[in-house]
TrEMBL record:
Coiled coil: none
PANTHER family: METHYLGLYOXAL SYNTHASE
Gene3D superfamilies assigned: 2.60.200.40, Probable inorganic polyphosphate/atp-NAD kinase, domain 1
UniProt-listed GO biological process terms: methylglyoxal biosynthetic process
Boundaries of every DAGKc domain copy: 44-131
Alphabetical keyword list: Kinase, Transferase
Protein name as annotated: Diacylglycerol kinase family enzyme
Superkingdom assignment: Bacteria
GO-annotated molecular function: kinase activity; methylglyoxal synthase activity
Pfam families registered for this protein in UniProt: DAGK_cat (PF00781), YegS_C (PF19279)
Length: 303
């Protein structure tokens, strides 16, 4: 394989990494497995341009993206549209898509597993024109992220601490909004506090990640009108891994979801793969089964 890696030097682990030494280490690992490897380390603001430039080269390459969930989401969008395989190198805080792909979170182990990996077809989803590999969310999560972004943090642990502080602030006033939904052709109207739609349903892990990435179904999670107490209880069930028993959350599997917000505030936000975006009045969410090519660790050898 020909590997071209784009590392976001401003993201997560790479902020404190000697990127020149890391690139040489990565090259050694991939060449040991018989591949060719080249890389570039760019600033976060230049990551999309670098990914698009690399994906446009007509030389049957695999495009590796190294960074946090935002970097990986951007890379998935670029590689899906270009028809290029994506290799995910987890260097962020949560690394949610990497976890779903069963890629080790230790960078050395991740490089070794990818160097001996295979290209597989997995699902990718869209919300109108925006792609996502993890989650589209409205309501409580965007509110919490907006609060978190007002706090200062300089490390992964600082970001986690800021998230906890933002959560503590957000539970005092859970959002409530009206939404008209059509789920696989079935219409319904509700007043809710949160909707999250995942690229494949969440598994049994404590983290909200998919166990299976080629199921071809969206996971639709609807939290009814929440009070501060019910938000606290929901957070507790998430931490204990028992959130499916929480009566305040409905889980529905679907191929396509249409959302309409009749009373949309002009500054309303949604999140896609953890990044804040403006919320549109009408949003159509679809899953594109098997359309994203990814490099994943080889399955364990059978005994």
């Amino acid at each position: 394989m020909k590997i071209h890696a784009v590392f976001n030097r401003d993201g997560g682990t790479f902020r404190t990494t000697d990127m020149k030494a890391f690139a040489l280490h990565a090259k050694e690992i991939f060449e040991k497995h018989g591949h060719t490897f080249e890389s570039e380390s760019v600033a976060g603001k230049d990551i999309v341009k670098a990914l698009k430039n690399a994906a446009s080269k007509d030389d049957d390459r695999v495009l590796m993206a190294g960074g946090g969930d935002g970097t990986i989401s951007a890379a998935a969008d670029v590689t899906w549209k270009a028809g290029v395989p994506l290799a995910v190198l987890p260097a962020g805080t949560m690394n949610l898509f990497a976890r779903s792909l069963k890629i080790p979170l230790d960078l050395h182990a991740a490089l070794e597993s990818l160097a001996s990996g295979t290209v597989e077809h997995v699902d990718i989803s869209t919300a109108n024109e925006r792609t996502f590999v993890h989650q589209f969310s409205i309501g409580f999560q965007p509110q919490m992220i907006k609060l978190r972004n007002t706090l200062e943090f300089n490390s992964r642990w600082g970001k986690r601490l800021a998230s906890m502080r933002a959560f503590a602030k957000a539970i005092g006033r859970p959002p409530r909004f009206a939404v008209r939904m059509t789920i696989d052709g079935a219409p319904t109207e509700r007043s809710v506090s949160a909707i999250s739609i995942s690229n494949n349903p969440y598994g049994q892990s404590m983290l909200p990640i998919a166990d299976i990435v080629n199921r071809g179904e969206l996971g639709v999670y609807i939290a009814e009108r929440l009070s501060p107490l019910s938000v606290t209880k929901l957070a507790a069930t998430v931490l204990m891994g028992s959130w499916r028993k929480n009566n305040d959350v409905n889980e529905i599997l679907a191929k396509e979801v249409d959302l309409h917000f009749p009373h949309l505030h002009r500054r309303a936000k949604a999140t896609i793969d953890g990044e804040l975006i403006p919320l549109e009045r009408d949003v159509t969410i679809k899953i594109h089964a098997g359309e994203l090519k990814v490099l994943v660790p080889a399955p364990p050898a059978s005994k």
